[in-house]
Design brief:
single chain; alpha/beta; Glycerol-3-phosphate (1)-acyltransferase; about 55% helix
Length: about 375
Amino acid sequence: MFDRSKFLDIEPYDRQDAEAACQRLKAHPEYIYALATALYPEVSEEAYARRKAFTAGVLARLDEVHGYDDFQKKITCGVFLEAILEHTVDEFTYSGIQENLDPDESYLFISNHRDIVLDCALLDLALYRSGYPICEMAIGDNLLSNSFIEDIFKLNGAIIVKRDLPVREKYLETVRLSEYFVERIASGKSVWVAQKSGRSKDGLDVTHPSIVKMLHLAKKREGVPFSEVIRNCHIVPVAVSYEYDPNDVSKAREEVVTMHNDGDYRKGRYEDVFSMIRGLREYKGDVHITFGKPLRDEYANADDVAREIDRQIHLGYRLCDTNWFCYDYLNGSSENAAQYADLDKDAFLSRFGHLNEEVRTFIINSYANPVRSRLEELR
């Protein structure tokens, strides 16, 4: 039996907490309108009408919310994501749900991490459209820059991962998080977590074994073998691919600055918020999500589990024209030209024309790396 009382400070809003948060949102419709403005920033009658319709659509549904599942289905999937897809995505597709997942089973979805908000949100939308239960999502408390954002996240099934803690407290919190994940999945609820802390900025999707080790911490103290915990978590690797990354320039600049400062980069107070907004409102082209096969084998250690997650993500990643073009461009080749025949190559490269060579090369490599990962798996 899942005991919510042990996790009240980190679990998503449910029941009265969800209803109270919705009342706070209703009391401040200007916050919803501000979110609509972030999605539709243009100065035009059409944008003004879109902002009003978005705000009205959210406010009209808040009284129907009695838990985060309601909010995710009625508002996030019903209003928010539909607006984003219409405005910034050419085609949203997904595969592997019917073939690999059982609607009566709960899973730990582990995906590559490209966008702060959309990776899990679009995964949920794919599940929702397919008639499958949606999931909770693990996020760092560094994203909770104000109470409005905290309400929005926890109404969307957010599990709060506490980052800035002293060493001993951090360990104890990690054990508690491990307990939450394992018990929540055992209780019948699916959970999403990124394959590593922080987004992939270089296009190399590699699972940190520490994420896998964390799953075993709580049950290890009870003497439960590692392989049994992994088997009971029903891990499903998920590959999320974007034709265009709205944050490609900011990611590259951050990484280049980090490299020149011995690994040190200090984010501005609202930098994550700006990244979230940019990721939501800017053009993404085609987006695809591939649900892999649940890990059923016996695994001896976290490295082996991480390797299988990586393998499925690299092979499941939907390579776009931008990926193939950048791969050929860096190799001085046209070997894969058929894969990007319809891409306006000059327009794509002109997006980075104002940048210095180091940043520009980093970005092009970030698009090429998923191709390299795929080819490496096929060798």
